[in-house]
Amino acid sequence: MSVRPLAEADIPQVADLYWNYMRRRNGSTPPALLAFLRELYFTNPFTDSAIPSLVYEGKNGRIVGFLGAIVRKMSVCGQPIKVVFGGNLVVHPEFRSGLAAPRLLGTIMATDHDLSMTDSANDISRKILERMGFRTVPALNIHWARPLRPSHYALYIMFRSTGPVSASLKFAAKPFCTLADSMAARLSGSPFRQTKSRLHGAELDVETLLQCIVEFRNGYSVWPEYDVHSLQWLLSFMERRPTRGDLRKVVVRDDSQKILGWYIYYVKPGAVGEVVQIGGDPKLTKDILDHLFYDAWEHGIIALHGVVDSRRMADFSDQGCFFTCRGGWTLATSRKPELIKLLERGEGFLSRLDGEWSMDPGD
Question: Nearest Cα to 55, choosing from 94, 107, 98, 20?
């Protein structure tokens, strides 16, 4: 049994592990997943040959464990740091009680970098990471939800908690939900009333997004570093995630065409939209949220989910959001304790765009 760097020839075995034991799917691994994993761990701009992804090799060359490594460039008060995100940790069930996971994690942690993070840990991997010295970062673990079609969203929550229901029951409930949600969106006293924003939205291109990230990170101590090439690759990769929906990117301007903010989210009509990033002038957070909510409502979204910047929680709350720590945990560890303290104080200008959440290959 040994840990070694991932090789391209290992991709089929790693894909099978991921498909069968992380996604818990039966049958053959889709060929598209192999292509995604190959691109993700060998050709993307966030790879570093000094910090490779790892496999745990058993007898006869069988791969029984895997840990993906994504290396992000960030800055702390203008000083560059190297941040390693370890994601897609999966171990074959026969080896989960052994040393596979600790050795994979220990090997990554021993590499030359400043900060180790994950933003997508489940409850099992969270416990493993905490035993390895990682700390759950409260400021990066506050998830928000905003119902847009409250009856449909209530139905979604109920079905998710009680398990599958018959197609006929869903079909029967739909007209009543549609009527109730139509009234909720139009009644003057309704908290779910939808009105068109006074601000103007347009397609957000890569150059403008890069400009926004640089301009609106003032006041934070930790932020990601991008260039046009790395940001373009990342958005392109995210756009090829059909299970989440279509990636929509919007820049928000006033009447004079001054940029006030932006947002990025996945559009999947009739489903929950996952928000990747919201940014802009802190004084106009409510206005940016109103624009997002109306845009998502127009596209048929029943609710939005995301991770909130702790500095903006009051504005999110005022706009009808509620909060939970429901998983997809963010944890971090560093040989420099001051880095962890900055994150815990909410000093990180970080979002779902900046970790491994955005590069999850999905189903």
Answer: 107
Question: What angle do helix axes 123-131 and 100-109 make, rounded to 10 degrees?
Answer: 60
The CA distances from residue 346 to 107, 251, 312, 331, in Å, are 29, 24, 10, 14
User: Exposed, middle or buried: residue 13 (CB in 10 Å: 0-12, 13-18, 19+)?
Assistant: middle
pLDDT in tens, 320-346: 999 998 768 999 999 999 999 999 999
Q: Given the structure tokens 């992804």, which residue do they identify?
A: 53
C-beta of residue 36 within 8 angstroms of C-beta of residue 361: yes
Strands laid side by side in the 322-324 sheet: 200-203, 246-253, 259-267, 272-280, 303-307, 143-147, 322-324
Q: What is the pTM of this model?
A: 0.93
| Tens digit of each residue's pLDDT (9 = 90 or more) over 176-210 | 889 999 999 999 889 999 999 999 999 999 999 99
322, containing H or E segment: strand 322-324
Q: How many residues does the chain have?
A: 363
Query: Secondary structure of 63-98 in the HEC alphabet?
Result: EEEEEEEEEEEEEECCEEEEEEEEEEEEECHHHCCC
